[in-house]
Amino acid sequence: MAVDPALPSEGYRLTVGPDGATITGGDEAGVFWGRQTLRQLLGPDAYRRAPIRPAPRTLPYPTIEDEPRFAWRGLLLDVARHFMPKDGVLRYLDLMAAHKLNVLHLHLTDDQGWRVEIRSRPRLTEVGAWRRRTRLGRGDPPVWDERPHGGFCTQDDLREIVAYAAARHITVVPEIEMPGHSQAAIAAYPELGNTDVVDTARLEVATGWGVSPHVLAPADQVPRFYEDVLTEVLEIFPSRFVHIGGDERPKDQWRASATAQARIRAEGLRDKAELQSWFIRHFDRWLAERGRRLIGWDEVLEGGLAEGAAVASWQGYAGGVMAARAGRDVVMCPMQEVYLDHWQAGGDDEPVPFGWVRTLRDVYRFEPGPPELAGTEHAARIIGAQADMWTEAADSQQRVDYRLFPRLAAFAEVAWSDLPAPDERDFENFRRRMDAAHYARLDAMGVAYRPLSGPLPGRRRPGIPGLPFAGPPRERSHP
After folding, report:
1. Which residues form the Beta-hexosaminidase bacterial type N-terminal domain (predicted)?
2. Global model pTM greater than 0.70
3. Residues with catalytic annotation?
């Protein structure tokens, strides 16, 4: 194994012959991805944790030259809504490596839980990491699991995750949500909320789903609080990008808050959209001063995009196109295409139906590059693609596996390979390759994927209502 800088970054050349296999990479990551391809050639048993039979004596003698289409090939793992302990995260890093995915976007905070230890603010985990009960699915009247739920990762746990990922050439991008999706933080430290509107001292960590009205107050102490939080986060995560959320921020409390209105006047802002931008711009500058870059959901475009911010375009393609045309880097993760918490097929047997039906074929037809940017200088601003796994309806490793796989395999091929246009892609070829080898690899890795024939009896969840979306997927209008 060797590095040849003449090859592209993350690219590799794999040659197998009578004397063995040789892997040359454009960098160490390229060598690693070449090893993953060799592992595929060795057969499904190469994916087991211990050998169960002698390794094959012969292999085909190919020469394979390959390189990724995108530099950011990501998976978002939401450990905030349902906590996933360290060992579960390490397992998904192994699964990502096997699929040549290289960015783990770790969603660490939300209304329903705060999952990262912050030593200077201990109540974030003493209080914010625990909720007294959990809503099961959606529906009216609601169904509840009355057991308390929670947990968090210590800083050393997270350092272990970062090191384990780095050994697999995966970058871990942390997400600390602000100014919305902050109810758990406000429950721990009530002074972070809009105290002139709501009695935040009575607020608890959210137990249900949906968008919480409780947002951070635009008061002087709030940015200082989150600067202290992020100072500790930067010590754990060396990633260039830090995600600060910025999405789904209701305006009602700011509209009613005298403090918010005073901030708008003091900063010369026009409206509440620019108040959102005030938060984002502050942390864009703060992160840039420390050699990092802010990335946020496409609502960070509201009120004007901060100087160095990148955009994760989740509401569709429009926000990403707008940001790319403005010269900003974009990661495409439209919920209509690659939100893998959405159900995979219709039918009463599917567990907790949510969102739009997105089949394996649908995900294989996902195209990260917007056609309106094709052939323009802005196309290069699409730096990658990401599949997102939210966990409102996935309360265990088995449930996460079921929603992610096999669709994550289709996404991984799209993010790595320069495939034809969606209408020209050979899905049947992909399906045959899955049947011939890849399902056996997933079996060897212990992945509880959804068979194309439907859920096995133990995967169903009768009596728990979902929230299926009506009609075909539509792009949300963008501000």
Report:
1. 5-66
2. yes
3. 110, 181, 248
Q: Which of 300, 190, 187, 313 is nearest to 244 (CA)?
A: 300
Where are the alpha helices (H) located in 167-220, listed in sequence order? 183-188
Domains contained in the chain, CATH given: 1-67 (3.30.379.10), 69-468 (3.20.20.80)
Cα 175 to Cα 211: distance, rounded to the nearest angstrom: 17
The total of other beta-carbon atoms located within 10 Å of residue 467's CB is: 15
CA–CA dist 296, 241 (Å, integer): 10
Two structure tokens written together for 152: 């968090």
Give the C-alpha separation, 40 to 58, whole Å.
14
The DSSP code for 421 is: -
Could you tell me the CA-to-CA distances from 86 to 143, 154, 275 in Å, in that order? 29, 9, 36
Determine phi and psi for 262, rounding to 5 degrees.
-65, -40
List the one residue out of 445, 462, 395, 416 whose CA is nearest residue 93. 445
Q: How far is CA 124 from the centre of its chain?
A: 22
Query: How far is Cα 357 from Cα 36, in angstroms, rounded to an integer?
Result: 31
Token representation of residue 326: 């403005």
Question: Hey, what are 355's tokens?
Answer: 């969102």
Number of H helices, E strands in the chain: 16, 20
- The 3-class secondary structure across 441-464, one letter per residue, is HHHHCCCCCCCCCCCCHHHCCCCC
Nearest-5° angle of CA 53, CA 54, CA 60? 120
Name the residue type at position 369: G
Length of the chain as a residue count: 479
Instruction: Name the H helices within 267-406.
Output: 272-288, 318-325, 335-338, 360-364, 397-404
Where do the DSSP E strands lie in 137-203?
A: 144-145, 149-150, 171-178
Count Cβ atoms within 10 A of the Cβ of residue 214 and give its class: 0-12 exposed, 13-18 middle, 19 or more buried.
buried
Distance, in Å, from the CA atom of 291 to the CA atom of 302, rounded to the nearest integer, reads 24
